[in-house]
Structure formats: structure tokens, C-alpha cells
Write a structure and sequence with these properties.
Rossmann fold, 4 strands, globular, binds S-adenosylmethionine
């Protein structure tokens, strides 16, 4: 969740409140850091193997990222944030009740411990107050290893056209013609390009930090 706003300033997600964008991004980062730290503290290492694989990976990432952020050696993160309390985070988040990006970080973050324990469904809480529908109608998306489009179909169903551009990539261009047919309803936003994710994307014509979301399933 940390670094959710990274990307070039021109291509990155535009917030609903551009005037206060820098502060909002900082609060997003700060809240994400707080909730990741709280998750790590709430769950013992011995408990981890009982979780679903993707939650185990999230916990591994949390173990890696939280000391790094706390060290003060991470650009844009103030080591003093390690002293943040839930009350402090809530007060910051409530400064911008209409900024859906921030509210989503807060809603998912504050439920993260229950999410990992599968007591709360992430999508369900993200749909509260139509948050998911209000999110990122201008999202620039890259899919890696899209192949026959199994993952793509789910992404499109979830997005319901609320995105700006979708780059469909695979190591083989042999999938593209039939994908063009399958997803013809998205044709105005869909482009196809070869990408081998085991080689540097910037050497294959892809611009660094230019996507808001990167999807990939079973690659
Ligand atoms: C099991 S399929 C999954 C396809 C699709 N993501 C889905 O969910 O239906 C794996 C796909 O990854 C692609 N692939 C394998 N190695 C790759 C690489 N190095 N870079 C990009 N795509 C790769 C394959 O060509 C194949 O289309």
C-alpha cells in the first residue's frame, strides 16, 4: 500500500482536490505506513503460515518495508511517522472526506487485520459509499502476460469502463488478434504490445512510472 501514488506527476492519478494534492498524497503515504506497521505488530510470525498465500506475501512485504520506512532512508517518508497513533491518522484522513483515494487507503487500512484473517471482504468495504465506482476513472493500466485474457476479463468486469487506457501485453503477440475480438467493446481504450517481463521494460518501449495499476494473473 505504501507508494501507491508513485508515478510521474503528469501521468499519475489526478486527485479530486488538485490544490491540496501534495498534502493528500502525504497523508495517503502516512496512513499506509501506519496501517502496515500496525498489521505487522498484530500478527506473529508463527501465525503467518495459516493465512492465504497472498496475505502471507503481504506480511512478508510488510516485514521488509516497515523497518526501511522507519529508518528514515526512504524518500518521502518521515521517520517521525513511526510515532503516529490511530487518532492522529484518523484526524488527518478526515480533513479530506471527499477524496476517495484517501478514504480507500483508510478503509482498507483500518480493516487490514480483519481482512488478513478473512473476517472482512475487501471488495465489499471498498464498495461502501460507492468508493470503488468513484475511483480513478482516468486510470492507466498495464497487464503483463495477458495471454488468452482470463485475468483481463475479471479486471474489465470490475472496472466497468472506469479507466482511461489499458495496455494488453504478453511475451507472445500470438494472443493479440483473438483478444482484440474478445474485448472489442473496450477497443477504444485497448492497445496491444509485446512485453517480456523478464527483461527490462524500459528497453522494450515502456516508460518508467507511467502506470497507475499493473495487473498480472498466473504469469
Ligand atoms: C497461464 S497464462 C495466464 C494468462 C492470463 N494472465 C490469464 O489469467 O488467463 C501465462 C501467460 O504468461 C505469459 N508469459 C510467460 N512468460 C512471460 C514473460 N516472461 N513475460 C510476459 N509474459 C509471459 C504466457 O505467454 C501466457 O500467456
Amino acid at each position: 500500500m505504501a507508494d501507491i501514488m508513485s508515478g510521474s506527476p503528469d501521468d499519475a492519478v489526478k486527485l479530486e482536490d488538485p490544490e491540496n494534492q501534495d498534502e493528500i498524497i502525504e497523508i495517503c503515504e502516512r496512513a499506509a505506513f501506519f496501517y502496515l506497521r500496525r498489521l505487522r505488530q498484530a500478527i506473529s510470525l508463527s501465525e503467518e503460515p495459516s493465512f492465504k498465500v497472498h496475505f502471507q506475501r503481504l506480511l512478508k512485504f510488510t516485514s521488509y518495508i516497515t523497518p526501511l520506512l522507519a529508518s528514515g532512508n526512504y524518500e518521502g517518508v518521515d521517520a517521525k511517522w513511526t510515532a503516529d497513533s490511530l487518532e492522529a491518522i484518523e484526524a488527518l484522513v478526515q480533513k479530506y472526506p471527499d477524496v476517495v483515494d484517501l478514504q480507500l487507503v483508510h478503509v482498507v487500512g483500518s480493516n487490514l487485520i480483519d481482512i488478513v484473517h478473512e473476517k472482512v471482504d475487501t471488495l465489499e468495504i471498498m464498495r461502501n459509499n460507492n468508493m470503488l465506482d468513484r475511483l480513478h476513472p482516468h486510470m492507466n493500466i498495464l497487464e503483463i502476460g495477458a495471454g488468452t485474457g482470463g485475468t483481463t476479463r475479471s479486471v474489465f468486469e470490475g472496472l466497468r469502463r472506469k479507466y482511461s487506457a489499458y495496455k494488453y501485453t504478453d511475451i507472445s503477440s500470438g494472443f493479440f488478434e483473438s483478444a482484440r475480438q474478445i474485448f472489442k467493446d473496450e477497443a477504444d481504450k485497448l492497445t496491444f504490445t509485446k512485453l517480456d517481463i523478464e527483461s527490462d521494460p524500459s528497453l522494450q518501449g515502456f516508460q518508467d512510472n507511467s502506470y497507475d495499476l499493473i495487473a498480472g494473473g498466473l504469469v
